[in-house]
Fold each of these.
Amino acid sequence: MRLEYFQLIDRIVELKLSDQIIRTQARVPLASTIFEGHFPGFPLMPGVLLIEAMAQTSGWLLIAITRFTRMPFFAAVREAKLRSFVKPGQELDLSAKLLHEGSGFAITKAEIRCDGKLACNAEITFRLVEFPNPEFRTNMEKMATILEFPVGALANG
Amino acid sequence: MADLGFTMSSTFDTVANIISETCDIPRDTVKPESHAINDLGIDSLDFLDIAFAIDKAFGIKMPLEQWTQEVNEGKATPEQYFQLDNLCTRIDELVAARGA
């Protein structure tokens, strides 16, 4: 997790297109300027960033489902529940499942678990649009490599 | 639900109920001649919720990207897809095509 680059997940650990699910992992950094304000003397991972982490996990699932032909843009979140504090240094297991793929949009259900315990979950809506330009897509492909995106899963889906 | 065989009126009732509930619009203001955007003021994000509910209710996938492209290219008018009686006709066609 590189908060300063808004990279909220570290790696993709499973992508199963037949079941339309993805699992990712992330480790909350021990130190960040964010924790100086949120909160002094009691550092907590902000809920909005946990929602963003679920959105990024969902986004990679949608990129996989659309085979890098569409970029998912976060459009709405509902039923977001922040069930427990997430603190610096904690390991997060994230997952997302496709709920509906419409024309130009998709909805996922996503969750984060810490030590097996459900920490938060939400239902997230995305607009699916063509990549705004080739450089954008190239950058996403580079990020996919960094996140160990399992390219082989696309062939098996 | 879709297998019950929708007629135009029941399609409209289903769509109107979805719009009313999703966008908090009084049901009696949603009429067949209503234009979803111009008359009912539904924005594109709310329309995604409506599309999700319609897709689910009828077991279809409304081709919104194609419709939007046709409107943007001047090949179709917004009324052809977003006036509710026309929208319901499109839905009936999609349901029929799925069952064919």
Amino acid sequence: MTVPLPPFWRREWPWALALVGGFLAVHYLPVEPLVRALALPRPAAEALRLTQWYTREHVLLCLVPALFIAGAIGVFVAHESVMKYLGPRAPRVLAYGVASVSGTVLAVCSCTVLPLFAGIYARGAGLGPATAFLYAGPAINVLAIVLTARILGLQLGLARALGAVLFSLVIGVLMHVLFRRDEQVRAAAELPEPAPGRPLRQTGMFFAALIGVLLFATWGAPLTPSGLYATIHGIKWILTAGCTLALAAVLVGWFGLPARRLVLPGAAVVGAGLAFPAAPAVPFAAGAISLAAVTSTQEGELEEWFGTTWSFAKQIVPLLLGGVLVAGFLLGRPGEEGLIPSRWIAAAVGGNSVGANFAAAFAGALMYFATLTEVPIVQGLIGAGMGKGPALALLLAGPALSLPSMLVIRSVIGTRKMLAYVGLVVAMATLTGLVYGAVG
Amino acid sequence: MRVRVFGPGCARCHELERASREALDSLEYPYEMTKVEDIPGIAAAGVLRTPALEIDGRLVLQGRVPGPTELRRIFEKAHAGAAGAT
């Protein structure tokens, strides 16, 4: 007997099976009995423990909504309206400003940063704005912000985003000043034709509902049992459900989703909620699966939304879990030790000395971090004794640069400019780390 | 028709290539597809956002992978345009 699958899933079911099956397997893996039965050495045990912790704490409530948001940014945000400020005729000052913050909407995935950098340099606003974009892009895309803030703490998440924006302006202007003689007349880039957009109010409501789901579902337990923060924590699942309803209303009202297609998902979510009143993750999972099922089979922009979300998931989730395994193996969970002795790390990048910040920035610039894996690695390093300043230095220099990306950057702007850029990034990351370590 | 797909080898670029082939095969248009994967080459074609799609020298799509229906419509339109010009 064959089950009739929609075309999308006929092609993608092995991936779906691998991702969902892998998630469930790691989630329910009996780690401790396994460690004892196999007498696993400590680094291997730490790798399994850390991976399970990530899977349980961060995948369903945080990564899944963040992926849907990233997909939505790729499909529903009118990129053309941002891109025109990066074109060759855009006012200079404006181009710098837009370049430094537009990574949020333009660079959802790291593989779009380098082409866009090359395009802005060769055919757009020039070297300054292009380097500003190159530096800030990887640090302020939506997945990086969400994951950094959630795992490394709100303070470091904000410091990373703000540091990236501010210093991208400095680096961009310095690059422009250093190489202003090389500026040449540039050909105009072909901007994509603006698609007929929907009213801003509708797109805004749509994103507000999505972000609301992410925000409330991951609302952490408060330190003190009173105040607004605690009140919200008490009713977080009601608020999450409210945002989900709002999302459903937006999809039906403005995104052309027939209301009858929500009958089954609605029943599934409510049923799961009634059956497991103590485990809100169950109805949440039912909701996420329903959203995937409904959008992947709805022709047009909803299908495109899910297609984009799905390709991010395929690209990011395996890399991230691989990164978590490696981080757990080498560095252990916070407070535990992996393969590398904590005192080595404390000696190299502990405290907030110039040397520690420089070591973190320099290592980060050379090392290649697959999308988002910088987060578990920095988490492991902090747990093993890395200082706050060096952690930020690594976060700022790491995703912006790696040996492979240096080669690509060199092919676009040449050796001299590339070396100047690398030098500026390492210097700026060291400086930012020092300031943050001293203040924070 | 001459079709070029631009992208530095990321998942969504492969996806656009695959979907384009599928659409072209189902429409039974004769085509020749090349992939541009090096960053300077992508920039030289005027592409800013990848994945991007070019048909007979005209950039028709940037920064997204449309659904199969829309992709077919894009190729049909380009095909009709090319037939009208000759």
